[in-house]
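Exam revision sheet. Question 4 asks you to relate a sequence to its structure. Input first:
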Amino acid sequence: MKSTALPVAVFFAWCAVSCGTSPKPQQNAPDPLPVTVGFPTRVQQPKSVTVSGTVVSPDNPVNVAFTVGGRVARVGPRIGDAVRRGEVLAVLETTEYTLALDAAVAQVAAARVTVSRAEDELRRAQQLLDTRSLPPNDFEKIRAAAAASRESLAQALASEGLARKRLDDTTLHSPLDGYVAARTIEPGNVAGPGIPAFQIIRLDPVEVSVGVPESDVHLVGVGSSAEVTVPALPGESFAGAVRLVNVAADPATRTYMTRIQVRNPRRLLRIGMVASATIRGKGMDDVLTIPAEALVRDPQGATSVFVYFPEQNRVHTRLVEVGPPRGTQVEVVNGLTASDRIVIAGQERLRDGMVVTATPSSPDPPEAQQ
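Answer key, structure tokens:
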């Protein structure tokens, strides 16, 4: 009988090799995500300077004080209230000043009587002098007395005017339209002359005080238009114009103080708010822009876009530095060229290195289309 050991061994060896080399089932690759790609756009835009600053009053805050002293009888507006030019702010007790005016009026009346009598005597003396019935020396004495009486009347009238003014000065009026920023008196207090009782500021217009760097000051001039935004008022922007560019730089910052006047009819801008201003400069810039919706931000807040590589059918993240908005577009300062294809729609689910199906928004870069 023939041995069967060798065929059996060969059979098991074949099974082991066959089982060990059988291919594993392949996993299905994820479907490519559909996206729309396009090119950055080169546009000519006016040069601009973006700076930060603070909202300030167009005038220095106006400190309003009594010119006479006395006890405060009445106080009108409170801090934050709007006031009109000429509006009564506060009133002092007037008894002392009323009595002083009454005394001055009485002195004027007495002086008028004295002048009247002196003028009558002078007329009679003139007649006697003309008939040689009065010595010239006596006439000169009478004329000097009449002149002295007229001088006394003038002094009495000046005293009356001063007393009347002091009485009027017991009422404090606002010198301008504005708002009460500070109030330091209350009824019953004693107000001293020259001591500020109110501080009044204007809110329309206001000004934004910014520092323009030395490298950019040549772009800015009086009358340059500006757009102002305030972090405290999201979604709001305010048009303004440069009113002043200082002729000397701040020695510490090497910036030139610039004042931008801004209309503020709704009183949304308040003194002391931090503001950002984009001033339109002289000349034009050739800038690269992309749609604002093409931008994405990572968890750290860095700004990037997805760049499409057609030879790989893949997208990769690229960090970009952006400048100010240009309508619906955003200026790209660094990170892209005009020939880069970027994802402008469908980037919500993208990740770095993903395979995509790209639909172009335009077939060629902007340079090739021109």
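Marking note for examiners. The radius of gyration is 44 Å.
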